[in-house]
């Protein structure tokens, strides 16, 4: 018998959490057609001896809503074994939109998700009004599959116009519900909203819908009664609040759809307890946990640069990067900085990020994102007998990013790993395509493999089979992608072949490859022998093959295996 592709002798980590096993995997017409001792031949055969074979990773928390218009490889996620992404998270997106108001949505995305507005303006073709029309425009070939959620901020802006920061009327609520229903019927895989104090527009206002009433949220949720698919994603500061939990529970019960809420160590136990209680009734609330603690990277080229607080830096900030580094090493310039009275940033959070020396860490060489006090600028300064400003300038001159970790960081990533290990949790928060001037968490699948399951020594590692499950079958099921995430007969042939012993992250680097020369931090990876989407090899040893088998995934149109 002849197959289109046969992967031979790999250790199959099948995505279910079961122990790995040695097997061949045969693929034809985009599906896995045999797993085991496969007779016959493949038109293409790959020897995976000594390597692991996993399902393609399913990343449910990205912001590629604009980038998919110009980047059909959907990088950097596709560099890290991801074969399906979900965008439209945190309530922001680019549809629906009224003609003439496109810039307002661009500015919201730029402010909330740190994506250069110039890149969005140049790279997005526009021309749509409804969410369905947006889906039609982005329904093109890709290196991976893409899916989109209906974003509350854009819907509210469309319905209410200049009133979108105000309370919604009953008529507004019903119109938002109607538009959400239309988006779901057109193929949206969910609805998202933001109730987070950090999501503000350029004027400093909380984004539309941040303080939406429970009546508004429940009215929008009614849209799900007309379809049998979709998930609800919520980012909220109020998950300890009884009223907030009450309408979240009501939404979960009345829609019958999975609901995922973002969690941090500061979130508290209330949402976890609610998820556990409802799980017994078959109702899914899935607290969403990321691989790393919430953080940013600060660099000379980045959105946040701690050197800008020193007036003397103004004299070199427009120099080429290498000349800036040279100046940072000169005694004359260093003395000027040491004598400076720092500027006070207008944003109190930014001011804290650039001046909390014990919380500012030189990014560890092992890319653990789990630094100790000895890696902090305060710790380094004490070890070397210099000032913290000198330690900062040393790191900046070496080109090493400064990692700032939010929350109550206690020198360990264990709280995140504990969250990932909980039965109710779902893995997410990569923010692929967003915050491009301060982080590259789209690389977290590689981080979880290389560090989480193999290299970590500061605490217990997570089992490889478990981590693969959390990044494949488990994430896929939340959004109803029941045709992928498992290596078994009948499933979609989205597959990674990984040299597990040698998989590793590269250092973050700033590149200027967005439209209009916009910048973004990226991290590449080693160890991905091949990534396969829909049965077609899309990457070999980290290099794109030119193949574009990926497509827009529309909710409600996925057939169960």
Task: List the main descriptive attributes of the protein structure presented here.
561 residues; alpha/beta; Urease, subunit C, domain 1; TIM Barrel; 3 domains; 9-stranded mixed β-sheet; 6-stranded parallel β-sheet; globular
- Count every helix, treating DSSP H or I runs of 4 or more residues as helices: 17
Unreliable stretches covering 5 or more consecutive residues: none
Q: Under CATH, the topology of the largest domain is which?
A: TIM Barrel
Helix content: 25-40%
Integer count of domains: 3
Describe this structure in words.
This protein is an alpha/beta fold and 561 residues long. It folds into 3 domains: 2-54 and 495-544, Urease, subunit C, domain 1; 57-294 and 410-461, Metal-dependent hydrolases (TIM Barrel), CATH 3.20.20.140; 296-405, no CATH class. It has 17 helices and 25 strands. The strands form 6 sheets. Strands 1, 2, 3, 4, 5, 18, 23, 24 and 25 form a 9-stranded mixed sheet that branches. Strands 9-10-11-12-13-17 form a 6-stranded parallel sheet. Strands 6-7-8 form a 3-stranded parallel sheet. Strand 23 (528-533) and strand 24 form a beta hairpin. The longest helix has 17 residues, at 170-186. The protein is globular, with a radius of gyration of 24 Å. The two termini are 23 Å apart. The model has no long low-confidence stretch (mean pLDDT 96).
Compact description:
With about 550 residues, the chain is an alpha/beta fold. α9 packs antiparallel against α13 (about 390-400).
Strand and helix layout:
Elements: E1 2-12, E2 21-28, E3 31-36, E4 41-47, E5 52-55, E6 57-59, E7 82-87, H1 102-113, H2 117-123, H3 131-138, E8 145-148, E9 150-151, H4 152-160, H5 170-186, E10 190-195, H6 214-221, E11 231-236, H7 242-255, E12 259-262, H8 270-279, E13 285-289, E14 295-298, H9 321-329, H10 331-339, H11 348-353, E15 360-362, H12 377-384, H13 388-398, E16 402-405, H14 414-421, E17 426-427, H15 444-455, H16 464-470, H17 473-478, E18 495-498, E19 504-505, E20 509-514, E21 518-522, E22 525-526, E23 528-533, E24 536-540, E25 543-544
Parallel strand pairs: 1-4, 1-5, 6-7, 7-8, 9-10, 10-11, 11-12, 12-13, 13-17
Antiparallel strand pairs: 1-2, 2-3, 5-18, 14-16, 15-16, 18-23, 19-22, 20-21, 23-24, 24-25
């Amino acid at each position: 018998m002849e197959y289109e592709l046969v992967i031979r002798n790999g250790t199959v980590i099948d995505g279910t959490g079961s122990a790995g096993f040695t097997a061949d995997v045969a693929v034809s017409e985009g599906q896995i057609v045999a797993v085991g001792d496969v007779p016959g031949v493949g038109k293409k055969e790959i020897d995976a001896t000594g390597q692991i074979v996993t399902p393609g990773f399913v990343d449910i928390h990205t912001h590629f809503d604009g980038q998919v218009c110009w980047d059909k490889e959907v990088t950097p996620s596709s560099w890290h074994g991801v074969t399906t992404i979900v965008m439209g998270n945190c309530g922001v997106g680019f549809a629906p939109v009224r003609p003439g108001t496109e810039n307002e949505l661009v500015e919201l995305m730029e402010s909330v998700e740190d994506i250069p507005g110039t890149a969005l303006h140049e790279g997005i073709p526009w021309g749509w009004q409804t969410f369905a029309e947006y889906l039609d425009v982005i329904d093109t070939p890709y290196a991976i599959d893409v899916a989109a959620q209906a974003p509350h901020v854009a819907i509210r802006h469309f319905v209410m116009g200049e009133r979108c920061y105000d309370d919604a009327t009953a008529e507004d609520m019903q119109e938002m519900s109607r538009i959400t229903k239309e988006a779901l019927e057109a193929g949206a895989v969910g609805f998202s909203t933001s109730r987070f104090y950090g999501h503000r527009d350029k004027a400093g206002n909380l984004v539309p819908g941040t303080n939406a009433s429970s009546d508004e949220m429940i009215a929008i949720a009614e849209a799900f009664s007309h379809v049998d698919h979709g998930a609800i994603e919520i980012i909220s500061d109020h998950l300890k609040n009884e009223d907030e939990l009450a309408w979240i529970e009501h939404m979960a019960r009345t829609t019958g759809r999975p609901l995922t809420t973002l969690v941090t160590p500061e979130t508290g136990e209330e949402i976890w307890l609610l998820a556990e209680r409802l799980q017994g009734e078959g109702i899914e609330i899935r607290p969403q946990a990321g691989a790393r603690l919430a953080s940013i990277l600060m660099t000379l080229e980045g959105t946040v640069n701690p050197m800008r607080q020193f007036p003397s830096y103004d004299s070199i900030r427009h120099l080429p990067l290498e000349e800036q580094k040279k100046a940072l090493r000169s005694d004359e310039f260093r003395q000027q900085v040491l004598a400076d009275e720092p500027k006070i940033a207008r944003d109190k959070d930014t001011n804290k990020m650039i001046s909390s020396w014990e919380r500012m860490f030189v990014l560890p060489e092992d890319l653990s994102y789990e630094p100790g006090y000895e890696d902090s600028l305060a710790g380094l300064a004490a070890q070397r007998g210099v000032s913290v400003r000198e330690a900062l300038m040393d790191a900046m001159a070496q080109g090493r990013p400064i990692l700032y970790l939010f929350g109550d960081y206690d020198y360990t990533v264990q709280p995140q790993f504990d969250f990932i290990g909980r039965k109710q949790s779902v893995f997410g928060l990569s923010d692929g395509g967003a915050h491009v001037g301060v982080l590259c968490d789209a690389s977290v699948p590689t981080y979880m493999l290389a560090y989480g399951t193999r290299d970590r020594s500061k605490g217990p590692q997570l089992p490889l089979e478990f981590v693969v499950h959390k990044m494949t079958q488990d994430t896929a099921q939340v959004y109803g992608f029941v045709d992928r995430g498992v290596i078994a007969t009948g499933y979609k042939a989205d597959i990674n072949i990984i040299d597990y012993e040698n998989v590793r992250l590269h250092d973050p680097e700033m590149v200027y490859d967005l439209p209009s020369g916009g910048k973004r931090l990226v991290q590449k990876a080693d160890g991905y022998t091949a990534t396969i989407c829909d049965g077609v090899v899309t990457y070999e040893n980290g290099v794109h093959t030119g193949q574009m088998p990926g497509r827009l995934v529309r909710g409600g149109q996925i057939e169960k295996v």
